[in-house]
Design goal:
Elements (H helix, E strand, L loop, with lengths): L33 E3 L5 E2 L3 E3 L5 E3 L8 E5 L6 E25 L4 E5 L2 E5 L3 E4 L8 E5 L5 E22 L3 E4 L2 E7 L6 H7 L1 H10 L18 H30 L3 H11 L3 H12 L2
Parallel strand pairs: 1-6
Antiparallel strand pairs: 2-11, 3-4, 5-6, 6-7, 6-11, 8-9, 8-13, 10-11, 12-13
Helix pairs in contact: 3-4, 3-5
């Protein structure tokens, strides 16, 4: 019989392997895109001309930036100040009207956004035809009116609105308004409505507590718009409760002429005008 033995002088090596577990964590970001045909102002890919002549995307403009706009008579350009960004939604898909002129200028804006038209003041984009002429900024810095060559409708993602102190701006070199048609008045009425907002903006340069009111919040909205909407609702309460009661009282006094006057004015009151505009802007 043969016996196997291990020489005690020979060292025995034992290797222990510890398995390593690697954990990989994957984070998935979901972006929700909304499609709408509502009033949405400009496409975020449009540009404005800065004080030094350079171009900058609308989405990169901040309150206080100096940008070029056109004088009302359409003869020259001058600087205006970006006052507020009331609306910015990068994931909102909107039907835009893309207008191209004979000079090659192109601009995408929503159906109800106002644009400056020769002989017609400001018109909503959906009312434009190839028979209209727009005001464009040429390379030599002069303004020229030029006919529209073509108008297309196209869906684009990302919307942006910029309001200047003058209520107008040059976007992609085309004269346009800062405002949209909300069904109660033209460009100039919109501009008058924003008079308290402009006053507050000027005051914000001297009072720090007002400065954040003109900056975008995490939802891409401007706080001052929502605050103003709150006060507009107070005005509407007065308009819809106090004024009708007063009208009834006047009716009881047989002041039929005054009653008809107040009823006629009631539907076009300033309070309702404020509410319609800011409810649309703050959506």
């Amino acid at each position: 019989s043969t016996e196997s033995s291990t020489d005690s002088s020979t060292p025995t090596s034992t290797t222990t392997t510890t398995p390593t577990t690697t954990t990989t964590t994957t984070t998935t970001t979901t972006t929700t895109t909304t499609t709408t045909t509502k009033k949405a102002c400009f496409s975020m890919d449009e540009t404005v001309t800065m004080v030094d002549g350079s171009s900058r995307f609308l989405r990169d403009i901040q309150p206080g930036d100096q940008i070029w706009t056109m004088s009302y008579d359409g003869t020259q350009v001058y600087l205006s100040e970006a006052m507020m960004i009331p609306h910015m939604e990068p994931n909102l898909t909107v039907l835009f009207y893309t207008v191209e002129t004979m000079t090659g200028h192109r601009l995408s804006l929503s159906a109800q956004h106002y644009i400056r038209v020769q002989h017609f003041d400001y018109l909503p984009a959906e009312q434009l035809t190839v028979n209209h002429s727009l005001y464009v900024l040429l390379k030599d810095g002069t303004i020229q009116s030029t006919r529209i060559r073509i108008i297309n409708q196209e869906w684009k993602t990302g919307v942006y609105n910029l309001i200047t102190l003058d209520g107008s701006l040059l976007v992609n070199g085309i004269a346009a308004s800062s405002y949209v048609n909300n069904g109660f008045g033209p460009h100039h009425l919109n501009h008058r409505i924003f008079t308290p907002i402009r006053l507050g903006y000027h005051l914000s340069k001297y009072f720090k507590f007002l400065q954040n009111a003109y900056s975008l919040n995490e939802h891409g909205k401007t706080w001052i718009v929502h605050t103003f909407l709150f006060y507009c609702n107070i005005l509407v309460f007065i308009d819809q409760v106090f004024v009708p009661v007063l009208v009834i009282q006047l009716s009881c006094c047989s002041l039929t002429g005054a009653t008809r006057f107040m009823i006629g004015k009631h539907e076009k009151s300033t309070a309702l005008t404020f509410l319609r505009y800011f409810e649309e802007t703050a959506k």
